[in-house]
Specification:
95 residues; mainly alpha
Length: 95
């Protein structure tokens, strides 16, 4: 059912949403009407980061991987934390 949702897709969409959130942050500080867009970009970034972490954890738990793939999954886990961590921290201001 969710075969279309891959690490690459989640990382790409999350990165773009994170960049959008970075551009919306000063706009939100100056004009609070941008708030829903800013919150949406943060939420999408957090969702994608958590997706990357979940897919990576599932892949590491279910498949035997070599040294090269372990390095790739380590990068994916770091990238997932970089997407999810700051966006979830920023979302705590709103909820």
């Amino acid at each position: 059912m969710l075969r279309f949702w891959t690490i690459q897709r989640a990382a790409g969409i999350g990165t773009l949403a994170g960049i959008a959130a970075l551009f919306l942050w000063p706009a939100y500080a100056a004009w609070e009407a941008v708030g829903p867009l800013f919150i949406g970009a943060l939420a999408l970034t957090a969702f994608c980061g958590l997706s990357v972490l979940a897919i990576s954890a599932l892949d590491l738990a279910t498949r035997k991987r070599g040294a090269i793939m372990r390095r790739v999954r380590t990068f994916d886990i770091v990238w997932g934390f970089l997407l999810a961590g700051p966006s979830l921290a920023a979302l705590t201001e709103f909820f």
